Structure formats: C-alpha cells, structure tokens
Amino acid sequence: MHHDDAPPVLSGTTYTELDALTRGEHHEPHRVLGAHPAEGGVIVRAWHPESTGVRLHVPGRGVFVMERLHPAGVWAAFVPGSLGARYELEFRFGNGASHRTLDPYAFLPTWGPMDEHLVTEGRHWNLHDRLGAHARTVDGVEGYAFAVWAPNARRVSVVGEWNHWDGRRHPMRRLGGTGVWELFLPGLRVGQRYKFEVRTAGGAVALKLDPFAQQCELRPNTAGVLVGPSQHTWSDHAWMQRRAKSVALREAMSVYEVHLGSWMRDAHGHWLTYRDLAHRLGDYVRDLGFTHVELLPVAEHPFDGSWGYQVTGYFAPTSRFGTPDDFRYLVDHLHNLGVGVILDWVPAHFPKDAFALARFDGTALYEHEDPRQGEHPDWGTMVFNFGRVEVRNFLLSNALAWFERFHVDGLRVDAVASMLYLDYSRAPDQWVPNAHGGRENLDAIAFLRELNALVHGRHPGAVVIAEESTSWPGVSRPVYAGGLGFTFKWNMGWMHDTLAYFARDPIHRRFHHNELTFSIVYAWSENFMLPLSHDEVVHLKRSLVGKMPGDRWQRFATLRALYGYMWSHPGKKLLFMGSEMADEREWNHDASLDWALLDDPMHRGVQSLVRDLNASLRALPALYEGDVDPQGYQWIDANDSDQSVASFIRWDRARTQPVVCLLNATPLVRGGYRVGVPREGFYREAVNTDAAAYGGSNVGNLGGLTAEPVPAHGFAWSLSVTLPPLAAVWFVGPDAPAPAAQEAVSG
Fold this sequence. Notes:
6-stranded antiparallel β-sheet, TIM Barrel, Immunoglobulin-like, alpha+beta
C-alpha cells in the first residue's frame, strides 16, 4: 500500500545502506530497519532474506502490504499518522508458509548512558545484569535483551532456534564507542538456545557462546540457553545475616573439597543432580562436621578431564547436574544445614576453544596478542589481558555474580602465582617485562587488589582464598596496607614439607625434623589455610594413605597421625573428598568414590577420626581463635628430633584454656614421656588417633592426666604421658589460671 502524497519508502536511508545491511556490514541496522518518522506518518522497513512478500499488521489500523526495496529481501511501507511498537510483520515465503512476529527494530536500546559510561570506565559492577541475554519487558512487550562486547567486529547478530541460526536475520546495533552491540528480541521463550554470530574485521564469520550466558547446553553442545527470572525462593536469611557479622579469621573452618561429578554417582554410574547432591552431600558433610564445602569449578566447561579448570561459561553453573535454580537449591540447602559454600574460581586463564572467549571478535580481545603474554605454556590456554579495563570488569562482575545470584560464601582463586609473575613457567626469552623492567604483572596485581576490595566491601563475611605457591609478600594482608587483600592463602610450603615428612620411613624422620617444625617459623606471615587438596592425589602421586610408609597398619596409623597433627596446627583446614576415609586409589574424575571402603573398619576408623577432629575443632576455641595470631601458639619442645616427637600448646584469645598437642612420629610406644604444661590441674585426653575406635592399638592415658609439680620445658608443671605409636594426642587443660600455679619457671 502506498499513498500518492507519501514520501518515498527509501526516505531516511540509501541504497548503499541497504547493500551494507544485506551484506552483513551495517553496524547500526536500526537506522535502516524498524519505524522511522516521515512527513505525514511513519516509514516501516523490514528484512528477511528468504521472504517473497511482507504484510504489516498495525493494531486498529489494518494491514499494509509492503513493497520490495532491495532484491535481498528488504521491504517497506508508509503508514499515515503515528505508530507504536506493537505492530507485527508477516513474512511470506515461496513454499506458501508464513511467519508473523513483532518487529525487533521497533524498540529503543535497553542500554542507557550510565551503562555506556560505566562499561567504558571498566567499573560496571552490575555488568552481569546488562551484558548477555536477559528477560525484559520493553514498552509492555516481553522478550529478551541481548548485549555483547565485540569492539572490532564488523557485524554481530543474535542467532538461535527461532531464526534457524541465520546471522542475516537479527543483526545488532553498535552503541557508540563502547564496543557493545545490543538488540531486543520480543517473543522469545525460556529454554531456547542461542549464540552470537560475529563477522570479524577480516570478514570471517564465527559462532560464539555468549560470554555472559547464564546457562549452557550440556557438552558437547556449546550454545547458551535462555533463562527467565529465578524461580527459587531463598530460605537462608539467617545464614546470610550471621555471615555478614562473622570474622572468618577467628572462626573454626574445616573445608571439604569436592568434585561434584565424582563424589558419588547413582547405581548406574550416572551423575547426581544438584538437588540430589544437596541432600546426600549436605547430610554427609554435616555428619562429619565440616564447616564448608569447596567445589571444584562449577562454571561451564566442555572437557570433563579439565575438572572444570578450563572454563567457557563463566556465569553458568554447569548443566551436567541441572539448571541455575537447581544450583541455587544446593547452596540454599547447604546453608540451612549450617554448611558454607566456596567455589573454585579460575581467572588466570581460559581455553582456546573457538566457540568461546578466544579471539572473540577476530582479535585478541580477552587475551594478549603477543603469545609471550597471552598464552599459558603449561596448560595450553590463553591468559587474560588484565590491563584492559573491559576484561577486568568482565572478571570482577563474574566474581560478584556468584555472590549475588547464588549466595556463595567464598572464592578460592586458582593459580594466583601464574597471574603475579610475567615469567611464570616461561623460558628467559619467552616473557615480556613490565614497564619498570621487572617480572611482576602489575595489571594482575591491580586486578587482584580490586577483586578483594570489592568482594569484602560488598559482601561482608565472604572469603577469598589464594592458591599461591611462592613467597610473594602480603597475599592475605589488606589492600590498604599494601597487600593483595585475600582472606586466606593456601600454605603450600606446609603441605609439601608435611607430606614429605610423613612419607619418610620412621627411622629416617629424626634427620628431617625441620620438615615438621619449619612451618611455624612463618605461620603468621599470612593468614593460612592448610590444604591437602585434589592436586596431591592425582597424576601418579598416589592417595594420601598410599604415600604413607610401612605395612597396612602403619600406613593407616601414620595417616591418622597426620590428620591429628594437621587439625592442631595453626591455619584453617582443607581436605579433598575420599581422603577422609583413606581412599587407597588415586582420584578418578570419571568414577564415584569407593564408598564400599567404609565396610572395612580401618577405613571407617579414619572417617570417624575426621568426624571427631572436626567436632573438637568446633568445641575448642584454642584450636581456631589463634590461627592468625602468634599468641595462639606456644612450643613446648620443638627440638626432640631424636625421638621424632613434637609438642606444643594452642591457646584461645583470652588464654583461658590450653590444648596440649603431641605427635609421636615413630612406631614406638613412649611411656613416661615428660612434657611441661602451663598450669596445675587435670588435662583431659580429648583426641588420641591411636584409639581402637579409629583402628588403632588403643594405647593411651586413661582419659587424661593430672599435672605434677615437676618442672619441665620451662614450666613449673608437667605431665607424664604415654605416647601411642604413630599417633597424635591432645590434652585439654583446666580453665582459668590459678594465681599460684603460673605459667613458666623464670630463668
């Protein structure tokens, strides 16, 4: 339909622009398509490359037959008067079929000036609510708002099931100089799959997963999945309120590290769902007394064998176990059981998969162009360009999203050392110095400081934990004091020395006593967590009990002694799944833990010990209040290397109740072992890893000992202890010091 007095339907655009649009090179398709004011009315233009005719349906105004403007399928019509956004386009095709839809190009941008300003600055902390695909109602019309950062692309389109993955159908508009492309598509449904089709500056076309996708297809498929507003109703308000007032440094913390795909499987060997895991894992962890679970990366990843450490969907809980709401259910249920949730988070590197972040718009966008900066030689992955504000914003927004969308309680940041050093695992000629000629990655340092300041500032009580294996100073010191700002740092030195010591034949331990004692020299240089993690039970390193020397009884006894020593050592605790029941195999990510082991009393005994260690940890403030304070630790005797015995005291902050801890690292029973103690009174034997209930020989001290006025180790009082073989023993001393019985003999 065309009025004689109407302006020509090409008015407001040019044939050159139509050509650019149909070739996929127009960066602002809304200039051509949609409704545009004209003298006396509105010109509507539409495009479908397969169409043979188009009718325009205007509510209350009737139907207008559009005329062809361009042979590639661009059509136009003039409508007198005004026109709202609710008109529909009916595309007709040569086979007689037709398709009717609201016009995506009739809507204003879903981004505003503040979004554009903040994304340019790299300080858009709600970026995860603006980039990606989000259910929106615009001008009363329900649909999805899409936005993606691809500054060097010639064209970006939204493709999906609704347009047969045809990148010509729904090109996006570029928003000024932000590099962000945007489009609102009405009428889409939850569950539909989508990607972005990117035409690079060189003309190549790539299908890319949305970097901000909230749900992804199950591998090997790689599309994003549209999600609606969460339908989960949170019930963890009491937990969240308590967390906000908590001070993790001063609290008991015992973490169970879990790989969800191999902790437990069903009778057919299939994965459990997030909801199944909520109950089975939750009940198990609560029964054993762990305060937290730490989940190996749950963000979407295509390769099971990466264990989650090669992430392609940073904002999407993996679809292996369910939907994002199913994951919320898991976190919520664990909170209601009194168990916190820490996620393993991977900002150090990302995989080269062509469908994901690598060369996203045809250029090194998230990574560096120079492989000496942009590729990780150890893992065959790409290194994030932390100097680019948009990349930092992507990662910071991602960290915040896990706290805000999923109520997680902390992040364990993977491979921090690889981020801090430009020459990490590189040959001398394969790295680029910083602006001052040094090896420190100044951009990564700034990123980590901003991460920790943001998380701690916006989510009080949350923890951020660094896996950092070098002597970098101040990893867990506040940003305002020049530190990196982490809450805790994994104590890799303690892990290495301790495992080396316990793996030795007992007859040789006397020559390596420093491996047991050296960790105390630096125990308060950082806020430490003691990790016996998944990395120690893979790649032919053997299981923990498999590392221990001797016959079967000695191996189990030594493992129990190690745990007794670990739980009494300053620092928060972390134990990988299976180690709590002395799994004798290396971890296999493709199979369940061997739960049948618990039919064996020796394995069940180790599990019972871990349960009791966690209970004692929670019950005795001396074992956790002083973890980050040298006043919480006191050597009794650090130097009894000849007998391979170590003895020390743990104190609570008020020094009201000491816990005396001893380790006998030999298979000899040592009767009458004299150990100085700070007070007179009765010392209850709270833990003995040689107890019969744990599979031990049941050598002990009849429930406790009374201090004798016999000076030892600089104390006026002492105990005559029977030290069990290959065992750790704890004695809980009397409350409140008696004035006449005090602390150490002077001189």
